[in-house]
Design goal:
The chain is an alpha/beta fold and 436 residues long. It is 49% helix and 14% strand. The longest helix is centred in the last third of the chain and has 56 residues. It is rod-shaped.
Length: 436
């Protein structure tokens, strides 16, 4: 019994292997060709250019780092002097930086086809504080003043100089001081500067400090609308009186501001899966309400300088892809990568799953049906030759066929074919007048 089972199993494996060899070969060829087009796995470590340690960019990047770590991606923070240096690093293919924070407007005059925007993250208002009782409302009124416009190479300085120049204020008629941050604030409070300009988020402690200091006032730009029309990368904002402190009514009057946005910029080579992961992190960090934004206002497509990445465009229209919403990052990424391989494989496997059983069935039945040819040939001889000598030879031939048929091993599902063949052999034997 054991030997019979072993014999049947060997035959079954042989039939299955012979049947599947062509479809399996086709599948292997399709898989090899498809693997050539499979996108490489996303890197597990990327580098972002931020700001000084105490800067807003560095604080935001640290939150991104914690969120990405949940999915096994390491975000390395590389400090810088700010948006200008970040942009320079992104444009340098040897810097080792994958993405960075860039102030809106910096890329409007730069040739940066190798870069793409992942979207605007939040507003960075231009704050202008001044000393004295006189109320300044236009940049043109700052002629002849000592104005702290930010450090050399900083984003604040570049924006300040562009707006001042458009209003007729320059180094020829005013004293433009290369001070920023705490230095500019100290100079203003100590009377060493008349005006100080800052590009900073409203949550910046330095801005909060100056808004609460009675020695200085924030400038409300009555030409804010005209300014944003001349510089389309800017946005007009309103800081309502009392928005900082209702009880103390800080600020004491509405303040009109202009603001670029902080933009997350990446190289075009950044892996698409990482783009989605970064945008989900940005949504978690910046998606809530704030002083100048409503809930879900950011991240958003508000950067006019750089082309929005394809993945970011899809993200802002319909959210993260379905797989990234319902599956862990690593699994969604794996399926995304393998889609280019799975689609042609499925196209081959679906018909193969129908063909292989049919071929297998045909192969098994063929072991029975081939004897019908022998039986039919023998029956034709019986009709032609009826002598006792011929009949004896024909009976020996029929016995031989029967013996060979009895050695056939078929799966149980096909056993009835064997029984039917034996009945037909007996039928031929009866016609020949032989033993039954």
């Amino acid at each position: 019994m054991v030997m019979k089972m072993a014999s049947w199993l060997r035959q079954f494996i042989k039939d299955l292997a012979t049947t599947a060899i062509v479809p399996v070969t086709i599948v292997i060829i399709v898989a090899i060709v498809g693997l050539h087009y499979v996108e490489p796995a996303p890197p597990s470590r990327i580098t972002i250019s931020t700001s000084r340690e105490e800067g807003a960019y560095n604080t935001v990047a640290a939150r991104y780092r914690d969120i990405l770590a949940r999915d096994g991606v390491t975000l390395e923070l590389r400090g810088s002097e700010g948006a200008v240096e970040n942009l320079a690093r992104l444009k340098d293919p040897n810097s080792g930086v994958d993405l960075g924070f860039v102030q809106g407007g910096l890329t409007s005059e730069a040739a940066t086809p190798e870069l793409m925007s992942l979207g605007s993250l939040y507003y960075e208002p231009l704050w202008i504080f001044y000393r004295g009782s006189h109320r300044y409302m236009r940049l043109g009124e700052l002629k002849g003043k000592r104005v702290a416009v930010g450090r050399e190479g900083g984003g604040t300085r570049l924006l300040s100089l562009r707006l001042l120049d458009a209003s007729g204020v320059n180094s020829g008629n005013s004293s433009l001081l290369s001070l920023s941050g705490d230095q500019a604030a100290d100079a203003l409070l100590e009377g060493k500067a008349d005006v100080a300009m800052f590009v900073a988020a409203p949550e910046d402690p330095l801005i909060g400090k100056l808004l609460r200091d009675a020695r200085v006032r924030p400038m409300s730009l009555d030409q804010a609308e005209a300014t944003v029309r001349q510089f389309p990368f800017l946005h007009r904002l309103l800081l309502p009186h009392g928005a900082i402190d209702l009880g103390a009514n800080i600020p004491e009057q509405d303040v009109e501001l202009v603001a670029p946005t902080a933009t997350l910029v990446a190289r075009e080579s950044l892996h698409p899966a990482l783009v989605y992961l970064l945008l989900q992190a940005a949504t978690e960090v910046h998606g809530g309400p704030g002083l100048f934004r409503k809930e879900h206002d950011f991240p958003a497509d508000r950067d006019i300088d750089l082309d929005l990445s394809t993945q970011a465009e899809r993200f802002y229209k319909s959210g993260p892809p379905f797989l990234h919403r319902v599956l862990p990052y690593w699994l969604a990424t794996l399926i995304d990568r393998m889609a280019v391989l799975l689609i042609p494989l499925i196209a081959v496997l679906v018909p193969a799953t129908r063909i292989i059983p049919a071929i297998y069935s045909w192969r098994v039945r063929a072991r029975v049906y081939r004897w019908y040819g022998e039986l039919s040939f023998l029956e034709a001889e019986v009709r032609k030759n009826t002598t006792p000598k011929d009949r004896a030879a024909q009976l020996r031939k029929l016995d031989e066929i029967e013996e060979r048929v009895n050695r056939i091993r078929l799966p149980l599902a096909f056993a009835h074919h064997l029984y039917v063949l034996r009945e037909h052999i007996d039928l031929v034997r009866r016609r020949m007048g032989g033993r039954g």
